[in-house]
Design brief:
- The complex is a heterodimer of chains A (about 400) and B (about 375).
- Chain A is mainly beta.
- Chain A contains 4 helices and 26 strands.
- With about 375 residues, chain B is mostly beta strands.
- Chain B is built from 2 helices and 20 strands.
- Chain B has a 14-stranded antiparallel β-barrel with strand order 2-3-4-6-7-8-9-12-13-15-16-18-19-20. In chain B, strands 14-17 form a two-stranded antiparallel sheet.
- In chain B, a hairpin with a 2-residue loop joins strand 8 and strand 9.
- The chains are: A mainly beta (about 400), B mainly beta (about 375).
- The interface between A and B is large, with 48 and 71 residues.
Chain lengths: ~400, ~375
Amino acid sequence: MAERLAWLSLVFLAAACGEEVSAPGMCPDFCPDVRISIRDSVFPASIVRDSSYRGYVAPYSAPTLQVSNGGTVESRGVFRFSAFQEELQVGSSASQTGPVVATDSFRLNVTLARRTDEGQVLELAVFRLPADVDTAASFGDLDPFFQDSTAIGILAIADTVDDGQVSAILPGDAFPTLEADSFRVGIGFALRSAVGFADFVTINADPSSGSLTRYAQVDSADGELAARTDEVTLSMDNFVFPALAPLGAAQLTVGGAPAARAFLRSALPAYVVDSSNVLRATLIMVPSEPVSGAPGDTVFLIAKALATDVGPKSPVIEIDVDTLSLGTADVPVGSTDTVRIDITHIVRSWTQNPDRPRSLALVAQTEAASAAEFRFHSSESASAVPVLQVTYSPLIERGGG
Amino acid sequence: MRRGLAVLVVLLSIHPAEGRGQNSVYGVLGIGFPGRPISTRARATAGGIASFDARSPLNPASVAGFRRVMVTASTGTTLWNYTALDSAVDGLSQTRSPMGLIGGWFRGTPVSFALSFSTYAERTWDLVTEDTVTIRGESIASTRRLKSNGGIVDLRAALAYRLSSRLSLGAAFHMLGGSSSLTTRRNFSSVDYISYVESNRVAFSGLGVSAGLVATLDPRLTFALAVRSDDRLEIEVDSAPAGSFDLPWSFVGGMFIVPVPALRFSSTVVRQTWSDMAGIGAANAFDTWDVSAGVELGGTQGTTKLPLSLGFRYAQLPFSPTTEQPREINFTGGSTLLMAADRVMFDFSVERILRRGGGAEEWAWFLSAALTIRP
């Protein structure tokens, strides 16, 4: 009997063992003496020793190139294709070839990545460029070739087309010096009929990103002419635009092509970085001039932490964030509005990794893929220096016990 | 059965560092909710017999009652609800192991000993508050969660000397220890603000001594007296000193009346000088009186085998958010089952508790059970 009672009691106690101690706090009377304060401050001299450098990515290395007009910058596309064959196969074996007697036409295929979101037809004039055009050619060097006399076709992009492959037919005499040029061709694009931009995929390793097909008549062995095609792919791509005004002494820049990066060093007080919980940190920058670039384009700025601060070659690091907007800002071309970037994750990483330099880099999302460039006042500016606004909670002050 | 009970006792005994007592809305104040160093048997009498009970680490002289080795451990479950500041909270519960003890005597000598742990203060709570903060011109809802898990444990080593069948003296050395992990979490309704968690470990340490006597003036009347002095409670937060506070003196007096063997009255009064701790945790601190009285019926030869214990207690609580000192009233009952040729004791008690004052009112049940093995 006693043993049964004992076990019964134990079972009863076990059944009551569920723990639930979470309750709404009846503050301040029945709350522990834990004081949490939240402060938000703009630190006027929190960015120091800032600088910017250009040349990280060249436009011919970027995954896209931009053709634009109508804004502060006109940019033109430059393609050079690999050489066509001197003779084309006419028989069943590869050794049975014949010379090209006549070229009927060319078909130009390019891959559109992005375009002005205006729902308008974009017409790009196609020009014949020197076959030996290379990446060193500047806008001024190539400008003489963007004339009516060298226009060889129109690449039309319908208002319903946002991306994908677009084509143009070029006449058979588009490249009259083809044989003299060792069967190589260079072409250029310029946006003529509208204001805006068109970005083209130019991944050289992907033949589908750009190709030129030659439709030719070939002399076969039996004296008959045979229709043949010969396709070549991109061997060089680039885009050119007039050089922007030199950077002022109290200016920093991000973006453009070749790509520029800005480096900013923090001078936040230690009581914020080391002795507080940073809830939000915002980098505030004031443009020193309207954002340059094609109408409708944007500069997508990304703030990145530095693994070590060794000047222009400082390696940047990626910090995983669960909020897409963290560390980025979308700045439209032509804007003069103050730009704010949330860099909470970077400032918190300084606290969590004391060895990490308290510096950051501003980079464009896809560097050198656009002429768009963001210039802003540096810490040397007399008018509007970059600053950090930080919302933070000092470490908890605990009352006795 | 006996093997199972023995295993349970051992399991209850091997976690002295986690020994904690009942919790309360008043537990967030001061150093926490004061524990009661009494056994489950004493709880059944509301603490009336605590100053005589060898298994209650209250009066070291009571250790003289050990004439054989025994080990005991208890567990307790609190179910409580309260109202404070016009808000009501119910459905709270917590189970802890508030006390354990091993005692015995040095064969052939009048000296007995006991080693025990008990709750000195319970510091477990989990509070969630919601408010709205204005940051950068925006009103943002915020949830703050303050969580504490731990307590202050009293480890006692006691020796008692039986001078005669009528008088026993005892002394004990107390070592206070323990810690609580404090977690502060704050979330915001806006994704623009990062939530944060801050964790601290608060450690406590202190020393104390106690002494007492149990005097039997008449076979039907026994008195007990004890006094305890603790040094300062040293507090460290994340291993850095964070202050120290004077711990209270404790004065204990008890009376045990046995008109007939089957009817035993007992009463214990405890006075503690908690007011020295005023200001800790921004709470008001008060000296306290703790008066308990109980009766045990049966359980002796010629009566019922199952004794019945009843008790009543009135106590003052030491910490309050206001100048009003909270009070506590307990109604208790319980019994003891003897098994395995009296080598195993199973004590259980039920307490109904009302606490009131300082802007809150709390109702609680406290269910306690203890296993004692006397090999």
